[in-house]
């Protein structure tokens, strides 16, 4: 009989944390932060970045998107600093943590050209591997972000990734997450889920199924190390593009909403589509107008704090937001290229160098994301933004976050994604025309964070970078800067 390998080290020695990220802590965090560091997937806002921001007293936010794969790949790369295993040694279900380490950890990392281990793509009925890794991954990320200070840390998730939401929330709550921020969808049921998990009760979330009834997914804390454990209920801030949606969520969500992030169409990552019929400009980007802005007076009337996001990364914008009644701003792009972010170093250096010549272009791509939401793409050689690199990539669906559940003619739940191989998508009843221009964001964003899969034939997945429209503003910062520098600049 084999026994799980012991986890080392038994607790997190803070000496493992890089000294340059140990920034002065100017006292406890205020009741509400003026600056939220936006959640940025995959692993761009990782624990190092969130920790550095939270140490300044503002709100650092880790990304829970794809955190199961990130955990697996960190372990397969040998967890060189030992942080992941150190965090896992604090997980309440020691046997589950040990089993996972034993299964995936490679002490010397992968051999050159060796692919990362693949776990079966989760489905509504079979998702144990993905859920275990998600609980452990979210726990690890929040646990590490909270080390060395007593200030709050937040978690960001994309609402559309319904299959992974419950385990990510639960893992983050086990590690003491303070705030949950969710966009890319209408997170109406999340307050109820947070209430249930906080009470140690099973939580249920519906999985939307195209062409059929939703399928309930349930996570029982007892099955993932949380038997009978009462947890702190985090605050919940949905990300909204309009005051109308904010009003609906404030009135009709399944429980408490404690604030909003109000994000405009110039923000990095996914954007809400323009209201009304989609019109493209001469370069092929969606046209946004007056109607797409949120009415701040209507937002104030809701009586909840809100933060403005999208090109608000300046002291003037912060002052204007406060004057308009906001609690502050949420900023992403400036933090994405800070030293502590999880973006891989060569991409960061390349973008910083180009920003200083003011030559970076950001394209709001209406097609790139299989979700159908516009997605901001940085035009950068060596990435999937280039037609040649896109055409050369062999389509494969092996991570699966952006698949859509659909009802098959036989009445079962099937899974498909317009970025998967075209023939497979069409065989599942998808329209081949819907695959045009779609990019495999799952694989590309893993590559951005330094975890590219090695596919058949030794082909390494290329990256695809996203940022807000104001990417060239990086030239106002030194070529290499820290999260605390961004905070200093924003505070004015
Ligand atoms: C690289 C990058 C990745 C992002 N990923 C996410 C995400 O996973 N979820 C999310 O809600 N917002 C995401 N965002 C949006 C940020 O959280 C934030 O709202 C936005 O960046 C603010 O606008 P700014 O980019 O002009 O500062 C992302 C932004 C960037 C730059
Ligand atoms: S983006 Fe790629 S890996 Fe993700 S679901 Fe679609 S095809 Fe699969």
UniProtKB/TrEMBL annotation:
<dbReference type="GO" id="GO:0004497">
    <property type="term" value="F:monooxygenase activity"/>
</dbReference>
<protein>
    <submittedName>
        <fullName>Nitronate monooxygenase</fullName>
    </submittedName>
</protein>
<dbReference type="InterPro" id="IPR013785">
    <property type="entry name" value="Aldolase_TIM"/>
</dbReference>
<keyword id="KW-0560">Oxidoreductase</keyword>
<keyword id="KW-0503">Monooxygenase</keyword>
């Amino acid at each position: 009989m084999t026994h799980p390998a012991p986890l080392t080290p038994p607790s997190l020695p803070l000496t493992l944390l890089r000294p340059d990220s140990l920034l002065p802590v100017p006292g406890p965090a205020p009741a509400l932060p003026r600056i939220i560091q936006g959640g940025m997937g995959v692993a761009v806002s990782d624990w190092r970045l969130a920790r550095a921001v939270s140490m300044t007293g503002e709100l650092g936010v880790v990304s829970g998107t794809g955190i199961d794969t990130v955990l697996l790949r960190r372990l397969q790369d040998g967890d060189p600093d030992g942080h992941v295993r150190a965090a896992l040694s604090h997980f309440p279900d020691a046997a589950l943590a040990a089993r996972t380490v034993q299964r995936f950890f490679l002490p010397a990392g992968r051999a050159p050209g060796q692919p990362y281990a693949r776990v079966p793509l989760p489905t509504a009925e079979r998702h144990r591997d993905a859920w275990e890794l998600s609980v452990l991954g979210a726990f690890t990320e929040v646990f590490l972000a909270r080390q060395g200070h007593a200030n709050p840390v937040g978690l960001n998730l994309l609402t559309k990734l319904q299959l992974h939401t419950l385990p990510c929330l639960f893992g983050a709550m086990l590690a003491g997450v303070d705030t949950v921020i969710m966009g890319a969808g209408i997170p109406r049921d999340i307050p109820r889920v947070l209430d249930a998990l906080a009470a140690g009760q099973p939580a249920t979330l519906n999985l939307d199924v195209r062409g059929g009834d939703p399928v309930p997914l349930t996570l029982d804390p007892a099955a993932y190390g949380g038997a009978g454990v009462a947890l702190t209920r985090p605050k919940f801030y949905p990300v909204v593009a309009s005051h109308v949606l904010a009003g609906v969520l404030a009135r009709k969500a399944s429980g408490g909403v404690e604030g909003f992030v109000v994000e405009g169409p110039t923000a990095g990552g996914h954007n809400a589509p323009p209201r009304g019929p989609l019109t493209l400009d001469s370069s092929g980007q969606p046209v946004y107008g007056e109607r797409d802005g949120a009415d701040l007076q209507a937002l104030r009337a809701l009586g909840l704090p809100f933060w403005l996001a999208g090109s608000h990364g300046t002291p003037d914008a912060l002052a204007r937001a406060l004057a308009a009644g906001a609690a502050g701003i949420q900023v992403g792009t400036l933090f994405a290229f800070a030293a502590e972010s999880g973006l891989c170093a060569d991409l960061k250096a390349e973008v910083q160098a180009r920003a200083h010549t003011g030559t970076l272009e950001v394209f709001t791509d209406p097609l790139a994301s299989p979700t159908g939401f516009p997605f901001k793409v940085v035009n950068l050689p060596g990435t999937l933004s280039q037609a040649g690199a896109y055409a050369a990539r062999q389509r494969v669906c092996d991570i699966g976050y952006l698949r859509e559940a659909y009802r098959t003619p036989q009445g079962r739940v099937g899974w498909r994604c317009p970025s998967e191989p075209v023939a497979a998508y069409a065989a599942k009843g998808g329209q081949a025309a819907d695959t045009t221009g779609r990019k495999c964001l799952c694989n590309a964003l893993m590559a951005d964070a330094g975890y590219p899969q090695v596919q058949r034939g030794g082909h390494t997945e290329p990256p695809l970078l996203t940022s807000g429209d104001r990417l060239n503003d990086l030239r106002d910062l030194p070529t290499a800067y820290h999260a605390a520098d961004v905070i200093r600049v924003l505070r004015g």
